[in-house]
Write a structure and sequence with these properties.
elongated, restriction system, type I site-specific deoxyribonuclease activity, alpha+beta, Adenine-n6-DNA-methyltransferase TaqI, Chain A, domain 2, single chain, Restrct_endonuc_typeI_TRD_sf, EC 3.1.21.3, 11 helices, disordered N terminus, four-stranded mixed β-sheet
Length: 456
């Protein structure tokens, strides 16, 4: 008797529907200001009559950070130093606040850089270009950041303006394509409510509402991870224990496999598949070219069959199972949809059709147990890879061909439903992210009136 109960996707759909909801206010539920005027700034549009617009440089000069040179000199660093050293990676990995970095500067190092104190606001102009951050620690910034020495405006409000990405319209796309410097940042115009109290109300409103949205996104992301775990467990169980919960089991004699149904047999992979190694240097002549980037991890899905790879390839035919041998990508495997060529580090397995179903093998080699086994035998330092000599001697449990086909059909159906549910949740998350951006933009430009909502 199996101790694993096969749960269908309907069980998870019920869980998804019953997942506790986080109430987020809708933009349509909020009032508008009584009267608007043209701001004269494209990204801002109309603003409330009492508001104004102001260039950043009118609020404070815009300055660049500075680095001690040469930066790799150890005299500039001290693990017990008072000021943390901010790298682009530290800001990229942070959300709104910078709370820690991996290095600290010595007294000499910090004297040659630009010091920032808790509450200070600065913006990246290199790497994650345009990313704003508020520091909660004493730190020093290099010339990949700009800062605002005389800024008196609420830094939280300024953070929301910049994190929307709207001020960068016309300057490029938020990220590495933006071209920012002290002049372009200084010339950015921002909307300005008439008093500090209203600014604070906007910040408090956005803190509350974005927190609710972020909580809901986090719950959905956790549910996606749960679905992926259940998908993996479903596959692993089906290809090892079968579909009949009442079948008698016997010890397989293989530690990573455990018990298998009576009637199944243990066979080395080399007796079920042949490794194909028919090379061609004319990959351009094939309409189907499959490389690592074409394969989705863990799902066995072919994202597309185009690659601009121009080196040698291995000829494949429909039904061949392709398995990547590089350690970081062992979770990439797929069935060839047609004749073509596999390029890069893909092993091509041609199955013995009287013994093995391609889809059954695909599900087997995508289990965490199989991948972990192969991973433990990879060799090399810079880019470890698996060898066919090891893989061909892996013993796997194999049922009769009709049972393989039944298992494959069952898993096709169940994983398709789980994948559909995951995709719907991902779309929901994207909609929430879009709504979050729209809410921030609406609040900081006065398109919605959030006054009086902070006590609700």
């Amino acid at each position: 008797m199996s101790d694993f109960q096969i749960e269908t996707v309907s069980d998870f759909q019920v869980e998804a529907r019953s997942d506790s909801q986080v109430k987020c206010i809708g933009i349509s539920e909020l009032d508008l200001y009584p009267e608007y005027k043209n701001s004269g700034v494209e990204w801002i549009g109309e603003i409330p009559k009492e508001w104004d617009t102001v260039r950043i440089k009118w609020l404070s000069p815009v300055k660049r950070g500075a680095s001690p040179r040469p930066i790799d000199n150890p005299i500039y660093f001290d693990d017990d130093g008072d000021f943390s050293w901010v790298r682009i990676a530290d800001v990229t990995s942070s959300e709104r606040y910078l709370e820690e970095t991996t290095q600290k500067l010595s007294k000499l190092g910090s004297s040659l850089s630009v010091k920032q104190y808790p509450g200070d606001f600065f913006v990246s102009i290199a790497g994650s270009v345009g990313k704003p951050i508020i520091t909660k620690i004493k730190c020093c910034i290099h010339d990949g950041f700009v800062w605002f020495p005389y800024l008196k405006l609420n830094s939280e409000y300024l953070y929301y303006i910049f994190t929307s990405g709207e001020p960068y319209k016309g300057l490029g796309k938020l990220g590495t394509q933006l071209n920012l410097n002290t002049e372009t940042v200084g010339n950015i115009s921002i909307p300005l409510p008439p008093d500090e109290y209203e600014i604070n109300e906007i910040v408090v409103f956005l803190d509350r509402e974005t927190s609710r949205i972020d909580t809901l996104i986090e719950k959905k992301q956790r549910f996606i991870e749960l679905l992926k775990e259940k998908r993996s467990a479903l596959i692993s169980h089906a290809v090892t224990k079968g579909l009949d919960p009442d079948v008698s089991m016997t010890n397989s004699g293989i530690e990573w496999v455990g018990k298998i149904p009576i009637g199944w047999h243990i066979t080395k992979l080399k007796y079920l598949v042949n490794l194909r190694n028919e090379k061609t240097n004319n990959v351009i002549n094939y309409s189907t070219k499959i490389a690592l980037e074409n394969i989705e991890s863990f799902t066995g899905k072919l994202l597309n069959s185009y690659s601009d790879f121009e080196g040698d390839g291995t000829i494949i035919k429909e039904g061949d199972v392709l398995f990547n041998k590089l350690r970081p990508y062992l979770c990439k495997a797929v069935i060839a949809p047609s004749e073509g060529v596999a390029v890069g580090e893909l092993l091509v397995f041609r199955i013995q059709e009287t013994l093995l179903e391609s889809k059954f093998l695909l599900y087997r080699i995508l289990t965490h147990e199989f991948i972990s086994l192969v991973d433990g035998a990879t060799y090399g330092t810079k880019m470890p890879r698996a060898s066919w000599e090891f893989i061909k001697n892996i013993e796997i449990p194999v049922p009769s061909l009709p049972e393989q086909q039944a298992i494959a059909s069952y898993l096709d159906r169940e994983t398709a439903q789980i994948d559909t549910l995951i995709e719907k949740i991902k779309q929901s998350i994207e909609h929430l992210k879009e709504y979050r951006t729209a809410l921030i933009s609406g609040a900081v430009t006065g398109k919605i009136d959030v006054r009086g909502t902070v006590c609700e």
